[in-house]
């Protein structure tokens, strides 16, 4: 679907992303790279119907006679609808010759993350005037081993029920106020049938494969 946006606001975000200065090897840096502004030039130019009609007139019925005009453009991927549950799936493999190799690098992730710098200024389910879209970490999946064999374990946070989050999921209600602290609770490490209480510092030092955040309301 192609929509026409004001050129001055089409690439605007809820919060200034240029103030981030994200640390390399962090979730913030991954998001910053994924949502960066890209220039489409040369062989990546955008096919423009308006430019085509301007140069060659209305489209013709005979396919072989069709001509197209391309133009330089900008492209940016931004979040237009902030989800109640935010899931990150980290790529833990890379090409190594003709095979794949496990990536064991630690990726830093916070207990509370703000998506506002990566959301469009017209994000659909953010209350007018809010410049923060905060999420609290509640689950982590970790993989140990290689590409051929290994073991999955999980960290889960036991916490009280978030009624506001339920309202957002079931009714799509737009949050009016945002908290800045992570949801209180106790973290547990789960490996098969073995469950052990752990600290938040232990969770944040894990080699995350999947991250689960819930919207703070």
TrEMBL record:
PANTHER family assigned to the protein according to its UniProt record, in alphabetical order: UBIQUITIN CARBOXYL-TERMINAL HYDROLASE
Keyword Cytoplasm recorded: no
Pfam families: UCH
Species: Podargus strigoides (Tawny frogmouth)
Annotated GO MF terms: cysteine-type deubiquitinase activity
GO BP: any one term: protein deubiquitination
Keyword annotations of the record: Hydrolase
Gene Ontology cellular-component annotations: cytosol; nucleus
Record's protein name: UBP16 hydrolase
Domain USP: 1-216
Protein origin, superkingdom: Eukaryota
Annotated CDD domains: Peptidase_C19K
InterPro entries in the record: Papain-like_cys_pep_sf (IPR038765), Peptidase_C19 (IPR050164), Peptidase_C19_UCH (IPR001394), USP (IPR028889), USP_CS (IPR018200)
The keyword NADP appears for this protein: no
């Amino acid at each position: 679907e192609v929509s026409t946006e004001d050129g001055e606001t089409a690439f605007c975000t809820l919060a200034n992303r240029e103030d981030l200065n994200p640390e390399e090897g962090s979730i913030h840096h991954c998001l910053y790279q994924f949502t960066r502004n890209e220039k489409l030039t040369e062989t990546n130019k955008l096919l423009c119907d308006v430019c085509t009609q301007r140069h060659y007139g209305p489209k013709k019925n005979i396919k072989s006679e069709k001509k197209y005009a391309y133009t330089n453009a900008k492209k940016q991927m931004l979040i237009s609808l902030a989800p109640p549950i935010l899931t990150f799936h980290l790529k833990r493999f890379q090409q190594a010759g003709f095979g794949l190799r496990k990536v064991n690098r630690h990726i830093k992730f916070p207990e509370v993350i703000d998506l506002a710098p990566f959301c469009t200024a017209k994000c659909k389910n953010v209350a007018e005037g809010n410049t923060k879209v905060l999420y609290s970490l509640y689950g982590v999946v970790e993989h140990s081993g290689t590409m051929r064999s290994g073991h999955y374990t999980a960290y889960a946070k036991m916490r009280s029920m978030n009624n506001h989050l339920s309202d957002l999921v079931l009714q799509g209600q737009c949050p009016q106020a945002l908290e800045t602290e992570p949801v209180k609770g106790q973290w547990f490490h789960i490996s098969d049938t073995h469950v052990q209480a752990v600290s938040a510092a232990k969770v944040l030092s894990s080699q995350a494969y999947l991250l689960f955040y819930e919207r703070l309301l």
